[in-house]
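As the next step, I selected for study a record pairing a protein sequence with its backbone structure tokens, which the following lines show:
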Amino acid sequence: MPTGGEYEGSLERGQRYDDPLARVMRAFEDCRKHHDEFVLKCEQRYNAYRGWVDKQPDTLEWASQHHPPYLFQIVDTIMASLVDDDLAFAVKPRPTLVKDPEEMQALRDAAFVLENLLRVFHDLDGFDEKQGPLVLQDRICGLTVAKTFWSYRTGLVRKWERQNQPIFNGDGEVTGSTPVLYEAEMEGVLEDHPSFEVVDVRDFFWPEGARSIDDAPYLLHRVWLTIDEVERLMDAGIYDPKVLSELKETGSAPNDEFEQRSDRLFNEQRTKGRVEVLELWEPGKGYRCTAGNRKVLLQEGEWPFWHEEYPFIGISATPDLFTLVGVSDVELAVDLQNSLWDLMNARHDNLALINNAIVLISSDVADPDDYVFAPMERWVVDSPDQTRLLEMNPAPAQVSIPAEGMIKGDIQNVTGGMPFVSGASTSEVDQKTATGVSIITSLAQRRLQSKKQKFTWGYARLVRQQIKLIQQFMSDEKMLPLVGREGQIAFERIFPERIGGDFIVEVDAMTESLMRQERRAEAQAKLSLALQAAPLFAAMAQAGVAPPLNMVAFMDDFLNEFGIRDTARYYAQPPAPPQSPQLPAGGNGGPPSEAANGGGPPGGMTGQNLGITSSQAADTRSPSNALSQSPAMMMQRANALRGAGRNV
């Protein structure tokens, strides 16, 4: 790796660049050739995704030039399957050789605290909202990049405060006070949490031949900032404030060669009034330098982060072999969409010619304009052959419709947006049997799950970097809401030294989102089975063979699958047991000696007979039990269903 001003990359080995600005520009120029080709393909795919086609000037006015965005629906459907509405991350201590029980417990407590901190910080940062553009960029370009950083911003904080205002009497004496509400302003912290942004791949550069972000010898990130944003970064000590005047003298940013997207969407230039900032990141000793407008050095120094990794997370849901850029959905189907447009426009032209028939008029007609083509018009001619309508063959239009349907099916099959996944009928695909439909649907779901797994790995790595950022930049104790182990929310004081250590991250919400319905169905089936087995276990409990089932636990598991943690409110208090009436001594009206000698009701019961003569009277083999398993009871019920009771 380069050290001490030495830059290798695509340069000759050992060539030195003591000027950091020249170092940035050399790396930028080395990436321009292949990066411009990549950006050109991205713009072409984006135009196909939006259905944008430049009008051909030499095309006839009546010719159809329709170009509906068929790929928009395909990409949008796939993206909906890859985006989760509620991401949650499980933090666990990294396996180590620690044997001290206290240290192991400290790591478990730190993991629990970090889970709650991430939940709070992600809500503040809008983590879930950024999934959409992150996934969409990959589906169009074949690569998407996220950049992690610590977001810290100060400014005026406004709030309401109460202040006692004195009350004066007519003589000017203070007789009391009354609280008055007024607006107060003070300098405070507006943002102080880990964050990430979706990087526009048009502004992300990597050296030629890099297979992944990790093995790249350097990376370049281009940012477009206003002068005010540059000044705020200078005030924060990130950029050198001495070069502000020199930066302003450079004028506007260099022209961006790829602005068609912004021009078509909003008729705007994304670089207007902004400064082009090039950030060069090199691993090894963690060298980093930044240039403004390719002429001014804004920063030079070491990496600012503890995790010692590139702060960029590259994700490709459909990776390609030994290259950073993968395969996009638009790339797979752009030719099919162009073919579909050609067939559709040809069919529309043929239909227009049929509906607007051409009139053949004999050359010996004096004035052809006298023949008005309209209903109820009368044409006076010497011979019917002097005027007639040109007959058009409707067969091409009829042949075009099934051909277009086949191309639409090919678009869905090629991109993985299978028709069975979107609810299309079986007539639109080759498979007509239920078995074939099931197989194709299963394969399509597996393909989507494979794409989603790539984002799962990317999110896990992104959050691992955010944990390191929390450990680095959260230097002051904070009072944050934590979700307890039983779902209770309480405020707890968090100290920086409490969250130290190495951890691994697992994404829980993605699997939960896919399997939520299955898990609820499993909980319901488990509860139903427990209800059926409860009487048998109750009988076994009376016989002393096995304990009874705890139906409350089964019901709690069922409610938990629906996100209900406070299950106690679903259970009513059990009724109080009936009080036995006071009976005279001896029981059953007999003398006390009879009760003492075992007299009275069977079973050793004393007092009034409540209708139960024995504990065996209500077991599962007793005919008086509603759930009786007695053979005699079963025969009686079977005969009752046959009407035997009326014939006996």
